[in-house]
Amino acid sequence: MAILLYRLGRLSFRRRGRVLALWLLLLALLGGGAAAFSGPTTSKFSIPGTESQKALDSLAREFPQAGGATGTIVVAAPEGGRLTPSAVAPVTEEAGKVPGVLSAVDPFVSKAVSQDGRYALIQVQFESGADGITDAQREAFSEAGASVADLRVEHGGEIMRGVPEIGSTEIIGVAVAALVLVLTFGSLVAAGMTLLNALVGVAAGMAGLFALSSTVELTSTAPILALMLGLAVGIDYALFITSRYRHYLAEGMTGEEAAGRAAGTAGSAVVFAGATVVIALAGLAVAGVPFLTVMGLAAAATVALTVLVSLTLLPAALGFAGTRVLPRKQRTRDRTPPSASAPVEAGDGFGFRWGRIVARLRVPVLVLGVVGLGALALPVQDMRLALPDAGTEAVGSPNRDAYDLTTEGFGEGFNGRLVAVVSGDTARATGETAKEAAAVITDTDGVLAVAAPQMNEKGTTALLAVIPETGPTAAATEDTVNEIRDRVADVGGAAISLTGATAVGIDVSEKLADALPVYLLLVVGLSVLLLMLVFRSVLVPLKAALGFLLTIGATFGITVAIFQEGHLAELVGLDTPGPLVSFLPILLIGILFGLAMDYEVFLVSRMREDFVHGSDARESVISGVGHNGRVVTAAAVIMTAVFGGFVFMPDPVIKSIGFALAIGVLVDAFVVRMALVPAVMHLLGRAAWWLPRPVDRILPDLDIEGERLHREIPVEPQAAQLVKT
Question: CA 270 from chain center: how many Å?
Fold first, then answer.
């Protein structure tokens, strides 16, 4: 691999004009495709095959007028006042005239008025689903009742769900990343080029994603996930290759030779690191959840493009930059040709000093690190998962205002309404079963009320609106749903299934919770196999896998403590603590696995490189930390900044994902990789690189450290000339 990438790097450097033109053409084509074929994203989370989804599919066929999106208008009289039919009628009439609305039910007819007469709920039924609602329809719905004086009118329901948008908060992370790059490189050209490389990869990935959005159903979080991950890894990969290029350039190599060797050594690590991220994200498909599969594949495609950009466009950009990627002092310093066999002298930088400190204190570092991360993981035992509802949206958003007003007037249960669908062969059987089911559900603990059955035209499908006593994401509501399903299973005469947004959320959460252990086992097993291939060792992969488990445990623990339990929630701008979004754990495992392997490869590949070139085990660990510790540290700070920028978004789902990823990167890079990994490697010594001979003969040699490259293509004396710019 190293020799192939070496040749690709040299070719890209030499033909830099053509490489740049090809990437500009590709960006133009993808951008044109995005402009021409871009479609809307969806906020719908569902899993085919679950009871709730089967019921919704049945409604779409048998009861289409009840299968569309719904909206809720909450009307409240001034404190101490009471609503009257004449006061509420104009709001109901205006809602009924909104384009696409099938019906707006008068609350005095449906008896959706609070006991004190101050609050009323107007149920609005749309013809199309939530994804078919246009902005014009949504705006018209939100203006219904706006002209009515002396009444508070709030608009909510599934059609008012907020769709996260890419805004200015992400610029904070990019700005911090630019500052870290300048400090790391000491060159504005190197920093700008690295950042530009990442932006090109992200732009290509996002454009391709939106070009497919008209044929592939994308959740609203998929593009943002692809953006945050593509930015982070794109900057990291460019940083790693550029750092190695500068190292070779400072030794006296020509720009073309330095670019080739940087691509052959650091580029090999980038290919492997990128492959682990892509495989982990694509592996989300094992959960069997369509929206999660699409999210994973979208992010994986963006990461794959950033790897391709790093291996082709970056060497070309290095060719245009010349020696300007070096600090000014190095550009004017005399340089001599490097010896192909002479090892690089260990410096006295912070990385080397830190490596020696860990070598001396390896046992205390290991004990403190493991105990500390274990303590941070304790809140995980109380972790709860749910899909987001209006109660977790940002304070002041329309859906949140409607949710709070409904809770104030009727109780939280009215925000988590369930729907029992009764389907029979005849109208008589359906009607009788619906009455029996209503009685059984009414007698179930946790049920506040059950509305009279609504029948379709044929009389073969009936709907029962069920109001639980507790809110949509409460643990008690989940118990109520399971209890209802168990009890109606004994009712004969017709099929009965429970659905509604709350039931869908519970089914999705249970499905993802069941898939989580399987996916974690897959990821850990994958890490062991891949690292065994790369480092030709048994103990190094096992150590990496155990370190990853510590990272995941601590990250989940901190996220639960803040986002679920509310500790220090104000620091991240969280209005309302609650259960973690159900797909966060499995998504976090997939992404952090890839990023953890990035740092493992960047750090340990240099240790193995020095070890196979003759250094003893202890010195190779210090050399690995010394040479690549600064790069890993800078990469971690950059990733944390990029992910942390999404914490400032008002959407709680994006906020929690950004926070968990930022914390996970900090824990993994600074505690696990920079402290625990060298401590364990010092304790293992030469045994760290042990591999049974039968396994050694079977495993292919990926040569990620470039041993064959150094042996077969030695540095020629004439390669020691200064690069002309």
Answer: 21
Q: How far, CA to CA in Å, does 217 sit from each of 128, 137, 212, 214?
A: 16, 21, 9, 7
| Residues 434 and 442: beta-carbon distance below 8 Å | no
**DSSP structure string for 299-329:** HHHHHHHHHHHHHHHHHHHHHHHGGGGS-HH
CA 360 to chain centre: 38
Tell me if 525 sits within 8 A of 589, measured CB to CB. no
Q: Show the tokens assigned to 700.
A: 């292919």
Q: What is the rounded CA–CA span in Å between residue 121 and residue 112?
A: 5
Q: Which residues lie closer than 8 Å to 491 by C-beta, 6 or more apart? A: 433, 436, 437, 440
Torsion angle defined by CA atoms of residues 204, 655, 136 and 465, in that order, rounded to the nearest 10 degrees: 130
Give the pair of three-digit tokens for residue 92: 């109901």
User: What pLDDT score does 342 carry?
Assistant: 36
Residue 724 is predicted with a pLDDT of 40
pLDDT of residue 43: 65
**Is the separation of the CB atoms in 437 and 142 below 8 Å?**
no
CA atoms within a 13 Å half-sphere pointing along the CA-CB vector of 285: 9
Listed in sequence order, the DSSP H helices in 387-538 are 398-410, 427-442, 475-488, 501-535
Provide the pairing of β-strand 461-468 with 119-126.
unpaired
Q: What is the three-class DSSP state of 582?
A: coil
Residues 6+ apart with CB under 8 A from 676: 365, 366, 369, 370, 547, 550
> In the block, which residue shows the tokens 């949504």?
138
CA gap 566, 549 in Å, rounded:
24
β-pairing, 119-126 with 101-105?
antiparallel
User: Any idea what DSSP says for residue 413?
Assistant: G
Name the β-bridge partners of 219.
Answer: 42
Task: Tell the residue number behind the tokens 């168990």, with chain if given.
Answer: 486
- pLDDT at position 672 is 94
Give the ranges where 388-500 is alpha helix by DSSP (H): 398-410, 427-442, 475-488
Helix (H) or strand (E) holding 69: none
Q: Does residue 445 sit in helix, strand or coil?
A: coil
For residue 629, report the phi and psi dihedrals to the nearest 5 degrees: -60, -40
Cβ contact 437:496 at 8 Å: yes
What pLDDT does 338 receive?
Answer: 42
User: What is the reported pLDDT for 707?
Assistant: 65
117: its two tokens: 């007469």
Residue 713: helix, strand or coil by DSSP?
A: coil
Residue 178 contacts by C-beta under 8 Å, 6 or more apart in sequence? 191, 192, 195
pLDDT digits (tens, 9 = 90+) for 341-392: 333 344 567 888 898 999 999 999 999 999 999 999 999 999 998 887 888 8
Q: Which two tokens stand for residue 215?
A: 């044929």
User: Which segments of the chain have a pLDDT < 50?
Assistant: 334-346, 717-725
Number of other CB atoms surrounding residue 340 within 10 Å: 12
Instruction: For residues 583 and 1, give the distance between their C-alpha atoms in angstroms, rounded to a whole number.
Output: 36
Q: What is the pTM of this model?
A: 0.82
Cβ(46)–Cβ(508) below 8 Å: yes
pLDDT in the model for residue 165: 57
Which residue in 433, 468, 436 sits closest to 449, CA to CA? 468
